[in-house]
Amino acid sequence: MSDTDTTMNFIPGLSGNFVSKIAELFCNEDVKVVVECNKEFFTFFGTLVQVNCDSIQLDDAEAFLDNFKQAGKADVLFDKVVIPLSRVCFIGTEARKKC
User: Residue 96 contacts by C-beta under 8 Å, 6 or more apart in sequence?
Assistant: First the structure.
């Protein structure tokens, strides 16, 4: 693994505040879009699912994780999460800053 400004290690399981962790790594604009959940889609291990913004709070990592556990998507979600916003960011053990 080479250390560059576009590739970094990411905390497995996202302990702590979800949005602030994202904000540290990515763009505030994109974070805002994630929080507002503007008809955005999340890809978990290649499976496309729509986020129900009425039932989850994206600033609560545990609630976010629990929501998809209940939906039966996966036990471990944050190894690779793709957020297809206008600028795609990859969140996971290996996170690439694409903003």
Answer: 6, 7, 89, 90
Torsion sign, CA atoms 56, 34, 84, 90:
negative
Q: What percent of the chain has pLDDT over 70?
A: 0
Task: List pLDDT tens digits, range 12-51.
Answer: 343 334 444 444 444 333 333 333 333 344 433 333 333 3
Give the model's pLDDT for residue 76: 37
Closest CA to 83 of 69, 71, 62, 97: 97
Q: How far apart are CA 40 and CA 32, in angstroms?
A: 12
Q: What are the residue ranges spanned by the domains of the chain?
A: 8-96
Helix ranges (DSSP H) in 1-99: 18-25, 28-36, 61-70
